[in-house]
Records
---
Amino acid sequence: MRTHLLTAGWTTHPAGVARRGAGRAPVRFPALVAVVEHADGVLLFDTGYAPRVRAAVSRGLDRVYGALLPVHVTPEESVAAQLAARGVAADDVTTVVLSHLHADHVGGLRDFPGARVVADRGAVALARSARGVGRLRRGLVPALLPADLPDRVVDPGDLPPADQADLAPLAGARDVLGDGRVLVLPLPGHSAGHLGLVLRTPGVDLVLVGDAAWHTRAVSHGELPHPVARAVTADWARYRGTLAALDALARRRPDVLVLPSHDEDAIVAARAALAG
C-alpha cells in the first residue's frame, strides 16, 4: 500500500478565522486529497477543488460562498488531472471516502463516476435536500454532487468493525478495504456526519481529520478558531470534544500523525514522514 498527499487547489481566508489571534492577514488553505494505492484499487480521501467549483459558486445564492472562500484551481491542479499525470485513470479509483460534503472536499467527485463513495448517508440526504440560507450556512453546494450519489454511497455503519483498541479515545472505526490498514471513523462536530480516515503505514499511523481541525495547533495547543466559526459549525460542543480526543490520542501515541486538510505546513511534514 502506498500513500500520496496531493493538494487540489486552494482558497484564502484571514489567518485568525482558523486560529484565534493569528491576525487578519490572508493565508492559503490547500485542499488536501490523500491517494492510497492498494491491491484492491485506488482510494481517495476527499477530492479537493476542480474547475467546476468556480462555476458552481458564481451563480445565485452560492455566490456568497464564492466571495467568502474564493476558489483557486486550474484544470491541471484537479485531482483527476494529477492522477492522470501519474498514470492513474479515473476508472482506477474504486473508493472515495468523503470527510464531509463541503465544496473543497467534493469538488472533484464527479470525475470518478465508477467509485463507491464512503460517506455518512444522513449527511448526503441533508446535502441533497437543504435549501436557501440554511444550505448556505451549512456550506453545501448540491450542484457538485453526482445525481446517482445515493446509489453509490456506502455508509460507514455498513462496513465491518475494525480493531481500534490502539485508537482510544477515538471510537467507531470501520474497516474500509478489509485488511485493517484503512479505517474510517466518526469525528463529529464540524459538519453533519463528519468522518476521518486512519492509514496504518510503516512507522506512522496517519490520521486524516478533514476539517475536524483546521490547524494542528488546535489539537496540540487547544488554539480554537475565531468565535465566528461557530456560525458554520454543526455542533460546537462535539467539535471541541473531537479535538480533545485527537489530542489525547496524539499524546498517548507519539507514532500517530494527526493531519488536518488545510494546514499547509502539516501537509509538508506528513509527506516527509511518509517518505521515511
Note: The CA atoms of residues 57 and 67 lie 8 Å apart.
---
Amino acid sequence: MTVAVTGATGKLGRLAIARLKTLLPATEIVALARSPEKAADLGVEARAFDYDRPETLAAALQGVERLLLISSSEVGKRAAQHRAVIEAAKAAGVGQIVYTSLLHADRSPLSLAGEHVATEAMLAESGLPHAILRNGWYAENYTGAIPAALAHGALIGAAGAGRISAAARADYAEAAALVLAGEGHAGKTYELAGDEGWTLAELAAELSAQTGRQIPYDDLSQADYAAALAGAGLPEELAAAIASWDVGASQGALFDDGRALSRLIGRPTATLAEVVRAAL
C-alpha cells in the first residue's frame, strides 16, 4: 500500500511521516511538498506538489492508494487548493483521502471554519472514500507565546475563562498516521482534542510553577489583543484573526471532552504540564 502526505515538510507533515515509518515500510510512503528538496531528510520518496499548479497534481499522485490531505496553510486560498487536490486524487485513482479539518467545523464560530466545511462538502461530492479528522487547537499555538510571556512577565490573550482542549501536534500527527495506515475509518468524522481542557490562566499558572516566576494571565479585549499582536510585528489581518479565535475560545469553540483522540492513539494525550515542559 502506497500512502502520500501533502504538506510533508510542514510541522504536522513531518511528524505524520515519522509515525508512518513505524507502521509501513519507508518505500510505501511518499512525501508531497512544494519544494521536494526540503523533504530529503525524511527518508522517503519526495515528489513536487504545488497546490497552485493543479495541472501537475494528478501525475504526482500516480500509484498512491491513500492520501493524507493536510489542510493548506494559506487561509483564504484553501478551498480552491483543496478542490484541486481532490480532483487530482480522483483522476489519479487514489482510493481514500484523510483530511485534517477543524474541531466541530460544522458549528464552529471561528473564521477558519468556512473553508474546512467547504472542503468536507467537496469530499462528500467527490464520491471518494474519505475520513475527516477535525483537529482541535495545537498546544503549540499557545506555548509558542511562552518566550514573550517570560520576556514581558505576563501571558496575554483574549480567551477569558474559555477552556481549550488543546493537544500536542505530535498527538494529532499520530492519529493521522494511524487512520491513514489503518482500516475501518472511511466514512467517519472524528472530533479530535486533548483529554483535558485548560484556560489561559491555568497555562500561565503552570508556566509560573515550572519557571519559579510569577507569570500572570492578562485577559485583554479583542481589540487590545489584536493591537498587541500587531505591535509585536504580526500583520494586522493575522493579528485580528488570532484575536477573534481567542474570543471564539472564550465561547467554547475549542473545547471538546469526547476523548476521541486518545482513543485513536491508544494513550492519553499530552498534559498541560508536559507541553509546557517541552516548550521550556
Note: The chain has two domains: 3-135, 138-167+194-256+266-280.
---
Amino acid sequence: MITLQNLSVGYRSGGETFQALAQVNLELPTGKTCAIIGPSGCGKSTLLKVLAGIITEYEGLVELDGKPIRPECQKIGFIPQNYGLLPWKTVAGNARLGVKIKYGCLSGEGENMEQLLAQLGLLGLENRYPGELSGGQQQRVSLARSFLLQPDVLLMDEPFSALDAMTREDIQKVFLRVWKQHAVSTVLVTHHVEEAVYLGQQIIILSGCPGTVSKIIDNPLFGLEEARDQPEFFQMCLKLRKMIKEDWSA
C-alpha cells in the first residue's frame, strides 16, 4: 500500500518558493497499477521522485507498506523517459544493473533473467549494446531491469512517450503480460489518455500547478489485452478526455 497524506512539495528559486504539489491525498493498493495524468507542470514527475526517495524535503506523510520511503531499505524500480540504459553495458549488463546495485551481485537471479528476457523478446540480444537496439528493444531492456529487481513498487515516468504509436501499443501489451505474472505495485505517469485507460486500474487526474488530486477513477477495462477493440474503451477515453478538459479549463 502506498499512502500519501497531505503531501505538499515546493521548490526554492531566486529567493521564492514555487509550489509543485499541494495537499495530495492518495491510497494506492498493493499489487495494483495507477495511471496519473495531468497538465504539464502539475507535479507528476515530482510525485514520482518523492515516491522514489529522490526528493526528501516535503510536507505530509509518504509511506510504502506503512514505512517511510527509504530506497536503501526498499526495492524501488524506476523507468525514466529515456530508458536509463548505460551505453557501455550490454543488454545483459543493463538488465542486471538494478540487482547488482541493490545487492552487489546477481543474488541467484540468473534463471529469472533468462525467463524475463524470453518474455520480453530479448533472447539472443544479450551481448548487444543499447546503440545497436531499436527504441522498442531498449524499452524492453529497461523493463527487464526493473522486473528482475522484483521491486516493492515500480515507478514509470512516461516510459513509452519516445516510441512511435504502433511500437508504443506493442510495448504496452508486452508490459501488461509481464506485469500480470509479477503484479508489482505500479505508478505510471502519462500524457496519453489511451495509455492511462489501457494500463491503469486506477486513473488519477491531477489539477494544474500546484498539483492536487482532482478525480480518482476505477477502470473496469484494465487487463483486457484487446480492450482497444471494444466500444467501451472508446467511450471511456471520451469520458476521461471530457473530465480532463473540464477540470483543466476550470
Note: The first helix runs from residue 44 to 52.
